[in-house]
Amino acid sequence: MTSVPDTSSSGKVLAADGTPLKQSLNRALRRQKLRALALIAPLLIFVLVSFVAPILDMLFRSVENQLISDNLPATVVALEEWDPTSGELPSEAVYEAFAGDLQAAIAIKMHTRIGSRLNYEKPGISSLFRKAGRQVKKWDVPNDGPYKEKFIDLNKGFGDVEIWRTMKTYSGAYTNGYFLNSIDMQKGADGAEMRPENERIYIKLFIRTLIMSLVITCSCIALGYPVAWILANLPARTANLLMILVLLPFWTSLLVRTSAWKVMLQQQGVVNDTLVWLGLVADDSRLALINNQTGTIIAMTHILLPFMILPLYSVMQTISPTYLRAAKSLGATNWTAFWRVYFPQSVPGIGAGSILVFILAIGYYITPELVGGTKGVFISNRIAFHISSSLNWGLAAALGAILLAVVMALYWAYDKIVGIDNVKLG
Amino acid sequence: MTFTRTLLTTSALVAVGGAAFADGHMASDMTLVSWGGAYQASQQKAYVEPYAAANAGVTAVWDESSAEAVAKLRAMNEAGNITWDLVDVVAADAIRLCDEGLAMEINADEDLAAAPDGTPASEDFGDLLVSDCFIPQIVYSTTFGYRTDLVGDTAPTDVCAVFDTEAYPGKRSLEKRPINNMEWALICDGVGKDDVYSVLETAEGQERALAKLDTIKDDVIWWSAGADTPQLLADGEVVMGSTYNGRFFSLIEEQKQPVAMLWDAQVFDLDGWIIPAGLPEDRLARVKDFVKFATDTQRLADQSKYISYGPARLSSAPLVGKHADLGIDMAPHMPTDPENAKNTFLYNYEFWADYRDDIDAKFQAWLAQ
Predict the structure, then answer these.
(1) Per-residue pLDDT tens over the stretch B314-340
(2) Which of A289, A344, A364, B71 is the most buried (most CB within 10 A)?
(3) What is each CA distance from A422 to A132, A351, A361, B64, in whole angstroms?
(4) B367, A120: Cβ pair inside 8 Å?
(5) Among residues B124, B180, B69, B116, which one has the least CA distance to residue B311?
């Protein structure tokens, strides 16, 4: 600013062009902000379009349920007057509306999609719709009624109150059904209820995912801390060489590393063979190290270890060795010097490494799928299953939304307890 | 500037060249989707290479995405951009794709070649045309193999050996899904073959199958990729295990491992092509031309030179010859060979389409316990 402040008449500080200095300053700052925004705009737009928007779109599927109200509009209206608790079948009007709707849906090949949607809630509806589709398209609606008998003649499934109750329950444009399902609940005749014991899996999987991710994070700290300490305290030449050893597996394909663990850990594998040869384990009681939780923990700890070592190393490098020497010269034992002086300064590195490892671990699915057997798989394996095999994208989205919420809640709690400002990546 | 002009000229030339090579209004390249590995290689050798030799300038690119084909086609359909021309899927997936309108319906007699003796395609394929969109290629089966050196003196002949941990101790590998396993469990629990699906429809039947599987739960290694069981058998990790019959063929005949097959209660299934719905005209014309060629009697028989899956046409069966590299007779290795097909089980597509989600939830809950 070259202008000389003019404080003469009004008492306000004026810029060279006569506008108040505050206003002029604000304008300059705004221009600067806009320029900065324009500079990051390409990245911002890219992230919004290619990352945030698809995620929001996918998450929206967890509550979206327009399929039924869009494609069976007359039936949905007609069903409003029917009371499912009466135990009686809906009236002829409902069946007639349904015949009309179904014909329209068949014409655009939507009837099987509606069937699959309802089949998530009640098995058997999918085939009911598919079978009905072949016949109903030949009907002359609304002239060849009554449709109630016609439908029940076609398939006695249409005479089941449960079918109509399911249709009525899921007729809204939005549903919480997927979310209920992902916490092992369902919509029963009178509100939400727990699923039968033998169908409950998701809560168990969520808890298992969290606990195992925590175990993996802890074992990464236990293994990574000494390695990072050695790296930080060796002469640069040796440290660089060792650093390559840490990074080398990082550059190897994830699948290769996971498969290598299979060879190592299986019952006829390298580890067991060695133990038997050393006489530590009997040949007929070889250890089960793979296809269970142990396998997942070992393989994932190995795979995620660099994410712990790197932030730890960069934080430890900044800790001056003179602090330790000073502590010792003042009479501290080795342990006290480490625990009271060195360790507190390395905590930000542990924090950064733990967040990285924990959040990566919680979303892993390839490694658990390959070495986890049945007891070592994560919730992400079920999400992958619903996306690519069962095609129940609504349920996958609900599970994903819950996982995202859990991660954010943990992050928030972490910020409250440790403070995110205390996390250092370098 | 010069560079840009060169680039433009080149691309114009390429475009003209491409158009000139494609005959009529057919596109000159195709994206085929398959499973990768030996199976895709057999398709390349039996179908694509002879087709490219007969139609100069036509190129085919493979995408190894068959395992996720249904999900990906659905996403492509929602995005309005179909990048695949022909997709290899199992019959159950073909039925789902057809149901959702994601696959094109075909007219077998019009779109597929007749047998050499003039039998129309619809009769030549017969019952194997399980969906209006499905063009069958092969019959494969999921069956068991066992280590000949680990089963003692009496080799198993019955599928129920899988559930007999006293006579055949050791681990077994089963696929990590309810399909097939539930059926085998019920058969070995004394349910007649014809009653399996009516029993499995009920909650009690499902409980019963899981209870039977429970008796061997601690001895099972669950697989999710077809290559797992052959590897586990070769390593001696399991005594017996299930996988696709073609995988056993290469394990036994090509890799000479001490493994033998237990064809008892093998479950037949089909694999074939679907054409995605909504292809532009020129690509559709090309892919129809290719499919007609690739599924004729000779081509289907040729595929069995490279892999031990049975051709889906009746008229191809007599033409099945010897393996292209090993020179062994392929007929006795086909799942449809009378010697192997003494006791077979037919996969019920309709049943699993309806009950898959329900039974899968119970199966997964059982696995997690």
Answers:
(1) 999 889 889 988 889 998 999 988 899
(2) A364
(3) 63, 8, 22, 46
(4) no
(5) B124
**A9: confidence class by pLDDT, cuts 50, 70, 90:** low
Closest listed residue to residue B265, CA positions, set B186, B344, B164, B175: B344
Closest CA to B189 of B155, B169, B215, B217: B215
For A50-67, the pLDDT digits (tens) are 999 999 999 999 999 999
Q: Measuring CA to CA, which residue among B117, B137, B73 is closest to residue B293?
A: B137
Token pair of A362 as six digits: 């919680």
- Chain B (88-147) residues lying within 8 Å, Cβ to Cβ, of chain A: 96, 99-101
Q: Does residue A200 sit at the B interface (CB-CB below 8 Å)?
A: yes
Q: Which of A61, A283, A327 is nearest to A179 (CA)?
A: A61
Q: Is the pLDDT of residue A11 over 70?
A: no
**Range list of H helices, A330-422:** 334-336, 343-362, 366-371, 379-388, 393-417
Q: Where are the alpha helices (DSSP H) in A91-201?
A: 92-107, 111-119, 125-136, 147-154, 161-169, 177-182
Measure CB to CB from residue A112 to each of B100, B221, B367 and give the nearest one: B100
State the burial class of residue B216 (Cβ atoms within 10 Å of its Cβ: 0-12, 13-18, 19+). middle
B224 → closest Cβ in A119, A126, A369: A369
Q: ipTM of the predicted structure?
A: 0.82
For residue A2, pLDDT beyond 60: no
Asked if B222 lies within 8 A of A374 by C-beta distance, the reply is: yes
Which tokens sit at B312?
Answer: 């889906």
